[in-house]
Specification:
The protein is α+β, with helices and mostly antiparallel strands and about 210 residues long. The protein has helices spanning about 15-20, 35-45, 50-65, 105-120, 195-209; strands at about 1-5, 25-35, 70, 75-80, 85-90, 95, 135-140, 165, 170, 180-185. Helix content is about 30%, strand content about 25%. The strands form 2 sheets. Strands 2, 5, 6, 7, 8, 9 and 10 form a 7-stranded mixed β-sheet that branches. The longest helix is centred in the middle third of the chain and has 16 residues, at about 105-120. It is globular, with a radius of gyration of 17 Å. The model has no long low-confidence stretch (mean pLDDT about 95).
């Protein structure tokens, strides 16, 4: 479900109109995430750590309203729920775009993710299904590289307002603290650094829980 957002009475109306006209309206931030407790929790649950932090990511996304805004033409819609399109790797080193439905219940989300991961790994090609709606985030993990910044391949002519979240390699320091860098790219017409900060704080809190 989605509802039409009231742009006319929005304090950010001028910001939206300004950034919407840009060829590249996205901005990106890379932050370090402490995943020590989250990794221990995932292992205690005998759960995939990838699915664990993917779930915490989408819980945080659904918790911060601007991350549920999407642009359609000259209008903004607010979605009730945001799902995940994650890149899923295969044994031949290719990957496919998945669609994993959000659920606040980790066990339900895990089953959704495992089912979709298995489907992707038993298909070929990049697009193996339809993506009829844009109530998504684009998600990727790059566990081979401890990046400090990241860019994305984008077509400026294709209308896109979906946030893009990427994680890098897990680093373990001498005190056994585990960290990962997280890259966040969002449409500046829909939010500012303040809202990204809210998302990061929410996500880190969930990872510490």
């Amino acid at each position: 479900m989605k509802t039409l957002f009231d742009i006319e009475n929005w304090p950010r109306k001028e910001h939206f109109l300004f950034f919407k006209q840009m060829e590249e309206p996205f901005f990106g931030i890379t932050v370090e995430i402490d995943c020590t407790k989250a990794y221990e929790k995932a292992k205690a649950l005998k759960a995939s750590f990838f699915i664990y932090y993917l779930h915490k990511t989408i819980v945080a996304i659904n918790s911060i309203e601007p991350f549920r805004y999407r642009i359609s033409g000259n209008e903004i819609y607010l979605y009730d729920q945001i799902d995940v399109s994650a890149t899923i790797s295969r044994a031949d080193t290719t990957f496919g775009f998945s669609l994993i439905e959000y659920d606040a219940d980790f066990s339900v989300f895990t089953q959704n993710a495992l089912t979709e991961i298995e489907r992707i790994q038993n298909t070929t090609g990049l697009f193996t299904r339809e993506f009829p709606n844009d109530n998504l985030i684009h998600f990727s993990a790059i566990p081979w590289v401890n990046f400090t910044s990241l860019t994305h391949a984008r077509s400026y002519t294709f209308p896109d307002s979906c946030p893009k979240i990427s994680f890098g390699k897990m680093i373990i320091d001498k005190n056994r603290k585990r960290t990962m860098n997280m890259s966040i790219h969002v449409h500046h017409g829909l939010m500012d650094g303040f809202h990204v900060g809210q998302f990061v704080d929410c996500f880190q809190e969930l990872m510490n829980g």
